[in-house]
Amino acid sequence: MLLTELEQFIQEDVGADDTSCSIVPDTWVHARIITKEGGVLAGLEEARQIIEYFSLECESGFDDGDSIHPGDVVADVWGLAPDVLRSERLSLNFLCRMSGIATMTARCVADAGGVRVACTRKTTPGFRTFEKKAVRLGGGDTHRFNLSDAVMIKDNHIAIMGIENAIQTAQAEASFTKKIEVEVSNGDEMLSAALEGADIIMFDNMHPDEIRQCIQALDDAKLHNNIILEASGGINPDNIKEYAVTGVDVISMGSLIHSSRWLDMGMDIV
Q1: Tell me, what DSSP letter sits at residue 234?
Q2: What is the pTM of this model?
Q3: Could you tell me the residue range of the domain that residue 203 belongs to?
Q4: Based on the structure, what is the number of domains in the chain?
Q5: Which residues, in sequence order, are bridge partners of residue 85?
Q6: What is the per-residue pLDDT for 114?
Q7: What tens digit of pLDDT does each residue of 29-69 get?
Q8: Chain centroid to CA 267
Q9: Model pLDDT for residues 197-212, shown as the tens digit of each residue
Q10: Which regions in the chain score pLDDT beneath 50?
Q11: How many beta carbons lie within 10 A of that of residue 237, not counting itself?
Q12: Which residues of 147-186 are buried (b: 16+ CB within 10 A; e: fewer)?
C-alpha cells in the first residue's frame, strides 16, 4: 500500500495519546501470529508492511495465496514491546479480513467447476483495493475496480434512456478499448442487447432456469457469437452450483466481499 495510506490507517488505530502501549517497557520481545482456522492466506504483504513500519522484524514461511491450517504460525515478529503492541490490531485486521475473503472465494471457485467467479463494486469505501486483491488471491476475478474500467448499462440506465439508445450512445462515446456490458432482467432485454452489439450480457437476479431459457433463445437466434454471459444477483456459496451449470461464462457475487467472515487469527507474545 502507499505510505500515505499506511500512515492514515496507523493514525486511525493508534491516535495521538496511546497510553495503553506507552505504559509498556521498551523490552525486546518475540511474538507470533497464529491462525486458529484453516483457509487461504491473504493480507500478509500488508501486515508485513505495517509491522516493518514500526521498525520491527518480521519473518514468515508463507506467501499470500497459500493454504493455512489451524495452529500454523503465519509470521514471527521481533522488536520493542510497545511497537509490537501498536502493530498488532492493524496487521491482524488486514490478515483476518483479507484471508476471510480469499477463503470464501476459493470455496466458490471450487464449486463453480471452471466458470469464472468475480466480485463486484460492493466494497468497503477506502478498502476496495485490498478486498479485490483478496478475491484474486482466492482464485477469483476482480471485475471492475471503478466506473472507468468498462461501460456498465444497468437497470437505471435503461429506465432513463432505453436499452437501444444506451448501447448506441456508449458505442459512440466510449473508447474502443472498453467493453460494454448490459444488465438484463428478461429475454427481450437480452435479445435487444445482443442485437445492438453488447460485449457482455449480465443476467440480473434471474433464476437458473430463466437463464438457461435465455441462453437457448440466444443460440436459436444465432446471436450468441462472442458475447460473454454473466449471472449476478442473489448468488451465494449455497446456490452457486445451480448457476454454474446454466451455461454462463462468469458468475459475479457481491457476497464474496460483503458477506465473507473474518478468518480467526491472533498475535501472542512467546
Answers
A1: S
A2: 0.93
A3: 113-258
A4: 2
A5: none
A6: 94
A7: 999 999 999 999 999 999 999 999 999 999 999 999 999 99
A8: 25
A9: 999 999 999 999 999 9
A10: none
A11: 16
A12: eeebbbbeeebbeeeebeebbeebbeeeeeeeebbbbbbe
Three cell numbers at 176? Answer: 474502443
pLDDT of residue 22: 87
Instruction: Give the three cell numbers for residue 249.
Output: 461464462
pLDDT at 208: 97
CA-nearest of 256, 258, 232 to 246 is: 232
For residue 70, the domain's CATH number is 3.90.1170.20
Any idea of the CA torsion for 194, 196, 198, 203, to the nearest 10 degrees? -50
Based on the fold, state whether residues 265 and 242 are members of the same structural domain.
no
Residues 155, 218 share a domain: yes
The answer to whether 122 is a known catalytic residue is yes
- Residue-wise burial string across 107-128, b where 16 or more C-beta atoms lie within 10 A, e elsewhere: bbbebbeebbbbbbbebeeebb
Same domain, 100 and 202: no
Q: In terms of Cα–Cα distance, which of 8, 237, 245, 266 is closest to 101?
A: 237
Residue 75 shares a structural domain with residue 132 = no
Catalytic residue among 122, 178, 179, 241: 122
For residue 120, give the 3-state DSSP assignment: coil
Residue 225 has a pLDDT of 86
Same domain, 21 and 85: yes
The closest of 183, 147, 188 to 167, measured between CA atoms, is 183
Three-state secondary structure call for residue 151: strand
Q: Measured between alpha carbons, how far apart are the two ends of the chain, in Å? A: 29
DSSP H or E segment with residue 136: helix 128-137
